[in-house]
Specification:
It comes from Hucho hucho (huchen). This protein has a five-stranded mixed β-sheet, sandwiched between helices. The chain has a two-stranded antiparallel sheet with strand order 1-4. A two-stranded parallel ribbon has the order 2-5. The chain has three domains: 41 residues; 45 residues; 209 residues, 2-Layer Sandwich (Nucleotidyltransferase, domain 5). Helices cover 49% and strands 13% of the residues. With 334 residues, the chain is of the alpha/beta class.
Length: 334
């Protein structure tokens, strides 16, 4: 019942109308009118009163204990917490654990997979962000970004759940370290700039340094021409051993390509990761049924990615650098 109706009942009662008369006038049962009047006489209000409900099964001390446990080790399971409380003399169910931790601002989430960062990686990550924070947007627009990725035909990667607060998904305790490229159904190499996608090709064999140099020889310069890159454009690739091999460095030097110095294990700094995600979503929507179809659809959808998507990724590049600095060199959301 809305509050206005309750107030009308009290007003009509105060002017001397009976419960029956009030009920007929407002279209309510006499018993309902009587209950509202009795409540008003007893509590001097018609508002809903606080309800005590069932007592909490976990004491304040128990709440502190399980909150402290998951804060120290976010991978603690609900079963572990049920056992901890049982040893302390409190018997609860797993849903009770979930509800209690949710009231503390914690919820169970899938742990994010991020590269395994050593202290040297963190420092290099932070150094790159600080050194390039004030670079003009035009500099990033004149970079060709490149990488390889794994695109699966079917299957889901396994997940782990962690207890965390909002916006803490990338804290090192809440993530799963990963090592690059364990294989996959197809492995494309691609590149792009602020002007749009460059070439995308499928790597059909296990890539080595010679194959990588062949890919660059056949696809990098044609991509630069197609994208109409300005004089002095810069090439970006990560620190994969094939990329940093002496022969590859020498090849790039002889071709007079400027190469962006890159910190290891920094996918959040490479906007092509966002483009890979865009591609994978588009491919999944088309539901390829075999490897041949997967490859064809990848090529088609890559070519369809609008130049504006690429341009917008570079317009916000300074925000990436700011996030890395704010996160003290650890992986940020990308």
């Amino acid at each position: 019942m809305i509050q206005d109706t309750r107030n009308k009942i009290v007003d009509l009662h105060q002017v001397g109308k009976t419960e029956s008369a009030i009920g007929k006038q407002l279209g309510l049962k006499k018993s309902t009118v009587g209950a509202i009047i009795r409540k008003w006489k007893t509590y001097k209000t018609t508002d809903n009163l606080p309800r005590s409900g069932a007592p909490r099964k976990i004491s304040p001390r128990g709440v502190k204990m399980i909150t402290r446990t998951v804060s120290k080790n976010p991978r603690t399971t609900r079963g572990d917490l049920v056992n901890d409380l049982q040893r302390a003399g409190t018997k609860v169910t797993k849903p009770t654990i979930s509800n209690t931790l949710r009231r503390q601002g914690l919820k169970s989430c899938s742990a994010r997979c991020v590269p395994l960062l050593k202290p040297v990686h963190v420092q290099a990550h932070l150094k790159f962000a600080r050194e390039h924070l004030d670079d003009p947007d035009e500099d990033w627009e004149n970079v060709i970004w490149s990488d390889e990725t794994k695109i699966e035909l079917f299957g889901k990667n396994s997940t782990r759940r962690v207890w965390r607060t909002k916006n803490a998904e990338l804290h090192p305790k809440n993530t799963i370290p990963t090592v690059k490229h364990g294989g996959g159904n197809i492995m494309p190499w691609g590149c792009f700039s602020a002007k749009g996608p460059g070439r995308l090709i499928r790597v059909k064999e296990r890539m080595n340094g010679a194959m990588y140099r062949e890919i660059l020889s056949e696809n990098l310069l044609p991509s630069a021409r197609a994208l109409k890159m300005k004089r002095g454009w810069v090439f970006q690739h990560d620190n994969d051993p094939k990329h940093t091999a002496r022969a590859t460095k020498e090849w790039l030097r002889k071709k007079h390509f400027k190469v962006l110095e890159w910190p290891s294990q920094s996918p959040d700094l490479n906007p092509i990761e966002n483009l890979w995600r865009e591609l994978k979503v588009r491919v999944a929507q088309r539901q390829p049924q075999n490897i041949t179809a997967l490859e064809e659809i990848c090529m088609e959808e890559w070519a369809k990615i609008p130049a504006t998507v690429c341009e917008n990724l570079l317009k916000t590049y300074r925000k990436r650098l700011t996030s890395v600095i704010a996160n003290k060199g650890y992986i940020t959301k990308y």
